[in-house]
Amino acid sequence: MSDITLKVDHNVTYIEGTLNQSVYAHLRKSLGYRSENAQWMIRSKPWMKNWDGIITTLCRGKRWCKCFVRKEGTHFPSGLLSVVKHIFGEYSISYDIIDIRSKSIEKKEYTIDEKEFEPRQYQIDVIDKAVAKQRGVVKAATASGKTFVAAGIIAKLGKTPFIFYVTSKDLLKQAHDELERFIRCQGFPVEVGMVGGGHKDIQDITVMTNQTAVRALDGKYKKYDEEENGKDNTDIDDIKTEIKHLIMSAKGLIFDECQHVASETAQIIADASVSAQYRYGLSGTPYRDKGDDILIDACFGRCIADISASFLIKQGYLVKPEIFFIPIKNMKGFKKSTYQEIYKYAIVENTLRNEHISKIAKTMRDNGRIVLILCKHIPHGNLLHKLIPDSIFLHGSISSKKRKEHLDRMRNREASITISSVIFDEGIDVRPLDTLILAGSGKSSTRALQRIGRTLRPYPGKKDALVVDFEDHCRYMLSHSKKRRKIYQTEPEFVIKDLDM
Fold first, then answer.
1. How far apart are CA 460 and CA 57, in angstroms?
2. Measured between alpha carbons, how far is 408 from 402 in angstroms, rounded to an integer?
3. Element at 346 (helix H, strand E)
């Protein structure tokens, strides 16, 4: 008879049997992460003097810890089962696994319309592997066909209800249209529902914004990071119960841009998905800057596919980018300033820096290129807009209709210079875009790669992609610049150069 029994449910795996203290301590460390500012917190809060700085996803009894569910007994997120099995192997602990998940037998006869999109071999391989594994993270760069992969997984499984979660209103309609374009039922297009962005239509397959889902579950929405500014205030009072039931009864879920799952609000959704046997995360950057990446694995399991930008460039599916770093050194006198003060004077109101941005944008436009300037804050966008009068500035307060109209103009090469806030960070498909100016600085490695990806999609006549970033020589900003350079260097096909103005 085995020493330990692992009872695997959709969200949580329960450990039955006795673990000695050393094994439990090993599990606790391996299933946890060291939180940001842990050393500062330990030093500044006397009640934390015995805290080791590790937040664990393993719970025992009523002891407080940050984890997905709180029930009696020792348990951990089921996505970390492989980690626990490995540790048990190290200690030669024998164990039995009992699958206690409720499973759906019914299956819809969905197919993929390959006339709309001819699958690439790597996409077929990823779909097959995902269906076999039942959960996992798919790391897939821009233009890898993430939505087609999602459609393929949904169609091959045939399990309903199925929810495809997106991070913003802008991505809601885009994902909805793509799924309807690809998936067929008995030869006819399926009707895909939309919840969020003013829409309240539930179907067997539904696209939903994370914000709407959290509100339906009576949770409090917390932004992914300081740069997120899009809001979804859809009035769901008349359909709140139905949305909650949909989330709890869904047999499968896919999170687009799954790095958001590590945020507290996305964990609320994962907790409530008590019937979801099939769970997948999609992202070109499925990791976090805060060191809590394990929370992504906890929800979905291990990474089961890695389709990098460099792989796609070599295959001819993306264009090769050249990334130019321009040093900005007129930044003395900020040593004792706060981050917000430094950012205001060194980035937002830096006349020299903004003039460089304006000059580069106008030169690129005159050379027939389509330019996107990304900034973090609306005041910065307004300043740049004044410097470049023939530009258009888009931000979260602009209506979805106007944003869509402008996106269509960009796709038709009718808008030469666009200034945008972070609403363009994730998933927006504008293939003619060939020049990107990163005006906003920032430390996020996930956002850095996402932003580069906006320029890499192929388009007739498009031969290259130019990206302009800045090496800002002042406190905080210089380390952020170095961090962005380091993440670009993880892609062998990215060409990185230094350029003096």
1. 49
2. 10
3. none
Q: How confident is the model at residue 68 (pLDDT cuts 50, 70, 90)?
A: very low
169 pLDDT more than 90? no
449/111: higher pLDDT: 111
Q: How many CB atoms lie within 10 A of CB 448?
A: 23
Report in angstroms the alpha-carbon separations of 366 from 16, 31, 219, 415: 69, 54, 49, 13
In which element (H, E) is residue 343 found? Answer: helix 339-343
C-alpha closest to that of 171 among 197, 191, 150, 132: 197
Q: Does position 62 have pLDDT exceeding 50, yes or no?
A: no
Tell me how far apart the alpha carbons of residues 436 and 398 are, in angstroms, rounded to a whole number: 21
Q: Which two tokens stand for residue 176?
A: 């909805």
> Do the beta carbons of residue 103 and residue 157 sit within 8 Å?
no
Phi-psi region of 112 (alpha: psi -120 to 50; beta: other; left: phi over 0): beta
Domains of the chain: 4-99 (3.30.780.20), 110-307 (3.40.50.300), 318-498 (3.40.50.300)
Helix (H, G, I), strand (E, B) or coil at 65: coil
How far apart are the C-alpha atoms of 367 and 108, rounded to whole Å?
Answer: 52
Q: For the stretch 465-478, what's the b/e string if a residue is b when 16 or more beta carbons lie within 10 angstroms of its beta carbon? A: bbbbbbbbebbbbb
93 and 23 Cβ atoms separated by less than 8 Å: yes
Q: Please, are residues 257 and 425 in contact by the beta-carbon 8 Å criterion?
A: no
Buried b / exposed e over 381-420, threshold 16 CB at 10 Å, is: bebbbebbeebbbbbbeeebeebeebbeebbebebbbbbb
Give 59-67's long-range contacts (Cβ < 8 A, gap of 24+): 60/24
Q: Which residue in 193, 137, 177, 183 sits closest to 157, CA to CA?
A: 183
CA separation for the pair 387, 385 (Å, rounded)? 5
